[in-house]
Amino acid sequence: MNDHSIGSEVLVLRGLSVCLSTGDPVVEDVDLTLHAGEILGVVGESGSGKTTTALSLLGYSTPGTFIAAGQLRIEGKALHMDESMRPMRGSIISYVPQDPAQALNPSLKVAAALKDVLGAHGTPRPGNNAAEDALRRVGFGQAKTVASRFPHQISGGQQQRVSIALALCREPAVVILDEPTTGLDVVTQAQILAELRRLRTEQGVAMVYVTHDLAAVSEVADRIAVMYAGRVVEEGPAEQVLRNPRHPYTRGLLASIPDHVRPRVLEPMPGIAVGVGERPSGCPFAPRCPQRTDDCVAEMPTLEPIGDTRRVRCIHHRKTPPVRTFSVETLPRPSEIGEQPLLMIGDLKAEHRSHREVTVAAEQISFDVNKGECVALVGESGSGKTTILRTIAGLHPIAGGRVLLDGHALPSLVNHRSREQRRRIQLIFQNPAAALNPRQTVAEAIARPAQVLRKLDRRSLPAEVARLLECVRLPVRLANRYPHELSGGERQRVAVARALAAQPDILLCDEITSALDVSVQAAVLQLLLDLRDDFGLGLLFITHDLGVVATIADTVLVLDRGSIVDRGPTRDVLRAPTSDYTRRLLAAAPTVSRTPSSANDPFPVSL
Question: Which parts of the sequence belong to the ABC transporter domain (predicted)?
């Protein structure tokens, strides 16, 4: 499938089981095999057990869990999956975390961090050249400059490459990558994926790539293992799994992925993933599966071989239909657009001020959002998208221009706006962990906007909270939990429900789907489309995912360094961009329609 030859087995995992301290299984009977120079993609929704499995390969279990069973061999050597592996972390097997900003020590320069790893476990501490060499291996041309900086002085993409350099600097046999591109813009993401392909090809590094992003993993993986409810449900060569899924869960994931190359109607999976301690005795996907029969709930299906290279855990895998491709143009378009736009942005200018200088974040930004219309803002990190959104929301001062709601100018800052103006414009932040009050339960967080902005009486609040939780596909039992007791995807859905509690006219969405599972993302996008069509909700949507843009947006604005460089109906911009910058974004965006073997013969773009 790729231009390198895959070598001998470098990692063999058999019978892995990880349990909670209560004895409830988190991961059950997982087998994985990894060859030298191979990238294995481990994919699944939040709670599927993919990260738990990946951490177990390092002999690590999170607090409250323990590795109950499992045999691990790396380069032919049998290892105990416990803290006895600690001295081997970095030298035999290493780890690249999801969030490099949190993983890198903010008080250490990059060179010092690399020398700490290179000098770990009694190895003599190396000089500066070794640190710079490690940076050059991951594509840093100005290695000396990067080595002399602190983590906060480099970009998010550079931080992630430093994390990869830390993982590779002691030349381990296996590298575990945990969601390494989540939250990155498409250009930076493409650079990281290209770097991984280069390292795999040139240095023969074997990698386990853990992600919920099938579009990204399709660009790099040789094989894919799909996990659900703590078990592998399908495994095989990446191209075969992506083009002809045999497990209905794999098919459901693929049907939920937005794609800018072949825009189509998404098919959100019904129901929600079963939690730990809630798994049925038979197939755990049966409650959500359109193919289920009584046999499915009788006992757990085995991971059955189909052909020489694939395995699937489904007794009805021969009945799994192909992914349907209904054109996105069959979606209902916005209802009648009034003469006066709901939101008007005219020559908007926003600045960032410090004691020493003034930096223009965005200028000459003009566009309208009509009732029932979705406008998307697209661009790399630092292009000014979020600053524009915060300025419209009143969280950043207006340096020039104006923001009009129903033709009336809004005060620059939110504390000068009326309660009704605040109710009508709601902002959903990218990071729900920071946006949700850790001392409020889910019910309290959702109820507050309804109570403060809509004046809903206390007796009506429980029913309203339950309705909104159902809207975002969360079980009502989560109402009394706190944010730290939820997964990242669950927290983001709570943030969406909280914004909807105000019954806004305009919803400002800042990368709200970037950390969501594809199935949850499809459900959230469908929810927003339904709200747009049923209630005329106006949407201003920031995203770096061009597949999401193709699915939800009527109009797209492309931003580069604070200026609009391309604009128009989504169909036209994606099919015939007018700027080189937009063409670069489109070329960098990952898509399941372009697997490595089809790079020279891509699917036709039929917009």
Answer: 11-254, 343-586
pTM > 0.85: yes or no: no
Amino acid letter for position 361:
A
Q: What share of the chain is helix, strand, coil (3-state, %, to 5)?
A: 35, 25, 40
CATH code, domain with 197: 3.40.50.300
For residue 352, which phi and psi values (nearest 5 degrees)?
Answer: -110, 125
- Are 67 and 56 in contact by the 8 Å Cβ rule? The answer is yes
For residue range 502-558, list pLDDT tens digits in order: 999 999 999 888 777 888 788 888 888 888 888 889 999 998 889 999 999 999 999
Using CA atoms, how far apart are residues 323 and 188, in angstroms rounded to an integer? Answer: 29
267 Cα distance to chain centroid:
18
Q: Per-residue pLDDT tens for 559-577?
A: 998 999 999 999 999 999 9
Nearest to 510 by CA among 501, 520, 499, 518: 499
The dihedrals phi and psi of 377, each to the nearest 5 degrees, come to -110, 125
Residue 27 lies in a domain: yes
Cβ atoms < 10 Å from Cβ of 461? 18
* pLDDT tens profile 372-418: 999 999 998 888 999 999 999 999 999 999 999 999 999 999 999 99
Is residue 496 situated within a structural domain? yes
| Boundaries of domain holding 76 | 9-92+172-244
The DSSP letter of residue 225 is E
**How many independent structural domains does the chain possess?**
2
